[in-house]
Amino acid sequence: MQRLGRFLSLMAKNGMDCVIVKDIPTIRYLSGFRGDSSLLYVDAKSTVLITDGRYTTQANNEVQNYCRVLTYTDNIWQAAAELAAAHTKIGFDGAAYSYNDYECLQKAVPGKELLNIDLKYLRMVKDERELNLMWKAFKIADQAFLKLLPEIKPGMTEKALAARLEYYMASQGSQKPSFDTIIASGERSALPHGMASDKQIEVGDFITFDFGAVYDGYHSDMTRTVVLGMANSWHKEIYTVVEEAQWRGLKAAKPGMTGAELDAIVRDYITSRGYGDYFVHGLGHGVGLEIHEMPNINKRGTDVVLESGMTFSIEPGIYIPGKGGVRIEDTVVLTDDGAKVLCGVKKQLMEIV
Length: 353
Description:
The chain is of the alpha+beta class. It folds into two domains: 2-116, Creatine Amidinohydrolase, Chain A, domain 1 (3-Layer(aba) Sandwich); 128-352, Creatine Amidinohydrolase, CATH 3.90.230.10. The protein contains nine helices and 19 strands. The strands form six sheets. A six-stranded mixed β-sheet has the order 4-3-2-1-5-6, sandwiched between helices. A hairpin with a 3-residue loop joins β15 (317-320) and β16. The longest helix has 21 residues, at 128-148. It is elongated.
């Protein structure tokens, strides 16, 4: 009920009589329903999941006791409009609506005032149950990566490594990968989002693994970069800079600062070491029911003051085109005492020999 209470407060603050929610993760967050192709209608007196016959049984088994299930037969928008018939100011989460969705809603509620509501901040602070699910997702990813490490051999392709890692996560209980697994080796490790390719890994390669598991809807996200063979002086130099930068981010994170301020602390250090031009993305992002959610931990993250209970990544990287790159990423939960790391795999430079 606390989640719904915060939602109702936001609805009232925006001057709305009711809201028709389309965003699937938010519907799950508020109602407990794990399916899709549905709407959630909320007003001060009722919460109704509008779905079709494919999901009726599932929905009745999953929704919270304050939520009613309504199975529509012809038109989902008309079903929502009938629920909202007594109201004049109808909210909708526009970020989740296509233009066609908006036109359908507008046609279903002629003469009503449609008001956009921004829900992207609603899920930032995690409760105890959410954190427990995230811990399980991270444990799955940790165990899968540790199982993969002894099997890494020259001549394997990035795709083969990704397939094994995803299989090991699934065998540990992951519903699916958090995203398309990123494995980039050699010169390709300079690609921040280098998807696994047919390239064969070679001795002397940096290999970046960016991956995650999903447990009961909640995502994990972790990046580790290893060296195949013995690390040379360049490997050690660039890795040490990123490792120190990431450590500084972990130590600096605290409630009361903004994501932009945290990003600046890490970025300034990398710049002081001469690699500022090669840190080409933000420091991090929120993680939870979605792999990328609020808060922003980057230059744009000026609109949110970080709070205890927020979960986000801290992932500095250095990427030198034509040579290679390093990223180290942990997801953390922010507490009153600072950032607590959810990932369990060590971050010291690993040499695969």
